[in-house]
Every structure is written in C-alpha cells, then in structure tokens.
Amino acid sequence: MHLVTGGCGFIGSHLTEALLKNGARVRVLDNLSVGRRENLDSVASHPGLEILEGDVADSETCKGAMQGVDVVYHLAARADIVPSIDDPEVYFSSNVTGTYNILQAARAEPAFKKIVYAASSSRYGIPDQVPTPETAPALPQYPYALTKDLGEQTVRHWSQVYDMPATVLRFFNVYGPRVRTSGTYGAVFGVFLAQKLANKPLTIVGDGHQRRDFTHVSDIVRAIITATDLQTRGEAFNVGTGRPVSVNRIVELIDPDDTIFIPKRPGEPDVTCADTTKFHAATGWEATMSIEDGVKDLIANIDYWREAPVWTPDSIADATKNWFKYLKEKTE
Ligand code: NAD
User: Fold this and answer.
1) DSSP state at residue 304
2) C-alpha angle with apex 285: 280 to 289, nearest 5 degrees?
3) Strands 211-212 and 245-246
C-alpha cells in the first residue's frame, strides 16, 4: 500500500491517478483544506483507492494512515505562497509538524520502505547562481519557503539518524490541469485562466519579464515515480525544465489582448531556473513537455477554473497588503 498525503490536491491527484494506473494500491490522506475530492473523480471507483480525510498535523491520524504502507509520497502542505505571510501558524503546523508526524509514523510502521518528500525551489530565495544547483544556500524569503525547507531538513535528518530511505525533490513552479483554485491569491495560471474565462484583464506582476521554470505536472509525476527507487538518505534533487519562460510569454499563449500591470512583489526572484544535472545523472529523467503544449493542455481544461475567484488589481492589492508591509524594507 502506498500513501499519498495531499492526494486530493493538484500534484497529489495526478500522482494518485498515475500510481493506480501502474497497479499500486493507494491511500490518500488529505484534510481537504485546499484539495477537493472531485480532483480524484476519474479514479473514484477504483478498487485500489482509499481516501482518508484527516490532518497531518495530528499524530494519531498519521499513525492510522500509515498502517501497512511501504512507500510514502508526502505532498500534504499549505502550498500557496502569499497567504503564508498572514497565517504562518497553519503553515508551520501543516508543513513542519505534519512532516514530523509523517516521519514518526513511518518510522514505527514495519512495512515502511521509502519516503519521497515534495520540497520547493522557494528555499533558494533570490539565488546568486542561475541555473540554480542543489548546493545553492537556503535563503527562504517568506514563511511558506521556510516551512518547506524545515520539512526538507527534518526528512533528511530523520533519514540519516533513523536510517530511513528518503528522497527530497525540489519542484520548480509546477503547472497543469487542476492547479490550485483556492480562495487565496496564488499560482499565476489559476489567476490568469479564471480571468480569461470572466473576460477580465490578466494581471501581470511587475513588467512581466520575470521568468519562471514552469514545469508541467506530468513531468513532475514521472519524476516522483522515478525517485521511488533511488537509494538515498534524504538526498535533495532539483526537478524543473531548466528552460525558464517569462510571464509575458505565458500571457501571449493565454490571452495577450487584455492585460493590466500590477506592482512587482518584493522577496521574489527575477528568474527561477533549475539545474537538473544531478537528477538527470541519477535517473535519466528530463522534462519533456514544452510550454506551448502545456498551456494548450490547460486551455483544453479551462472549465475547471469556472468557479475560481476572479482576481482584480484591487482585490490583489488587498490580498498582498501584508506581503508588501513585511517584506519591503528588507529586500529592496
Ligand atoms: P495543493 O494545495 O493543490 O495540494 C496540497 C494538498 O495538501 C491539498 O489537497 C490540501 O488540502 C492538503 N493539505 C494541506 N494541509 C494539510 C494538512 N494539514 N493535512 C492534510 N492535508 C493537507 O498544492 P500542490 O501544488 O499540489 O503541492 C503539493 C506539494 O508540492 C506541496 O507540498 C507543495 O509545497 C509542493 N510544491 C508545489 C509546487 C507547485 O508549484 N505547485 C512547487 C514546489 C513544491
């Protein structure tokens, strides 16, 4: 039995579908704070799937969910960046205490063989080196990045001290169908697609020249499954395309006709770009989805964002008020 924490979320639901397709039995643990059961509709009646609603911040829940589990894919986390400045407590309990609870439960489970942890490129902050290798220092700029890095360190520490096979994958800007549509201001694709559906202008942050290493979820899922067999003790690997794309290019692909510029946010890098030499050498993995095909795939699934909040410059200014307040002086 495999356990996917956060399996009702964006990446977790794609991973769950792929594991079931490969013949695995999968238990999903998700508190549905952000994820939705409907994300697993395509496999809802699959006999190999079990969905548990529960919180990783609760140690008893983690122990229960771990029974009979050999491989743990630990994806459960609060993952929207901007709200972490307003509510660090829930980020800490989900992302740090939750990771600790999962590790402790795994350690006590006789069937346990391996944990793969969904880490984040946000740990690199505003890096000096681009493409950024795994050896770049951790420079988290906001609570989400810090909590993901603490989660990663905890996985590595447990792996080394308690001899638990573990691999840490640092994802770069994942996108694809079912990308989060929570009520909070977040991932650029969810924001743009809801705006396009509502015939509202796409809100471009800064001048739109900033580039991100947008990595399609199908490449990420392949990386996670590939990493399952790596014999590592908490080793970290970057997972990205290494080919960053500007926000303006994304706008061009989605809807270049109606746009509006909003202020650049402090604490965010001009470019994210993974150096994936290490993961490629260890597994042969490389990203294969082009941004053009990836965006086509999103647009083909655009109805998913019909109920999503439609952000305007005013509502974004309100949602990011504290971000500007706390991050400004230190980073500019
Ligand atoms: P997501 O929000 O869609 O999925 C996270 C899931 O975890 C949700 O279903 C949510 O309900 C669940 N969850 C949150 N707190 C929980 C808790 N306390 N207990 C149980 N379940 C809880 O986000 P995603 O984009 O699919 O991210 C998955 C993982 O990948 C996260 O760990 C995230 O930090 C990491 N990651 C994502 C990206 C990205 O670009 N999407 C980049 C780097 C790392």
Assistant:
1) G
2) 125
3) antiparallel
For ligand 1, mutation pick of 36, 51, 171 (most atoms within 8 Å of CB) = 171
Better pLDDT: 53 or 184: 53
- How confident is the model at residue 256, as a pLDDT? 86
Determine the residue of 4, 100, 120 to mutate for testing ligand 1's pocket, defined as the one with the most ligand atoms within 8 A of the Cβ atom: 120
Q: Catalytic positions, please?
A: 144
What residues are in contact with ligand 1 under a 6 Å CB criterion?
6, 8-12, 30-35, 55-57, 75-79, 94, 98, 118, 120, 148, 171, 173-174, 180
Q: Identify the DSSP state of 132.
A: B
Residue 332's pLDDT band (cuts 50, 70, 90): very low
| Global confidence as pTM | 0.96
Sheet arrangement for strand 49-53: 49-53, 26-30, 2-5, 71-74, 114-120, 166-171, 233-239
Helix (H, G, I), strand (E, B) or coil at 3: strand
DSSP annotation string for 13-64: HHHHHHHHHTT--EEEEE--SS--GGGGGGGTT-TTEEEEE--TTSHHHHHH
Q: Which two tokens stand for residue 170?
A: 């640092």
Closest listed residue to residue 142, CA positions, set 206, 77, 76, 88: 88
* Nearest atom, ligand 1, residue 215 CA: 40
- The minimum-distance atom of ligand 1 relative to the CA of 30 is 21
| Contacts (Cβ under 8 Å, ≥6 apart) of 325 | none
Phi, psi dihedral angles at 3 (to 5 degrees): -115, 125
- The answer to whether the Cα torsion of 149, 19, 47, 109 is positive or negative is negative
> Band of the pLDDT at 99, cuts 50, 70, 90?
very high
Interatomic CA distance for residues 300 and 189, integer angstroms: 13
Q: Which residues make Cβ contacts (< 8 Å) with residue 188, sequence separation at least 6?
A: 205, 212, 247, 250
Residue 204 CA: distances (Å) to CA of 187, 189, 258, 261, 326: 12, 11, 10, 5, 22
Helix or strand or coil: residue 298? helix
Question: What's the CA gap between 42 and 47, in Å, rounded?
Answer: 12
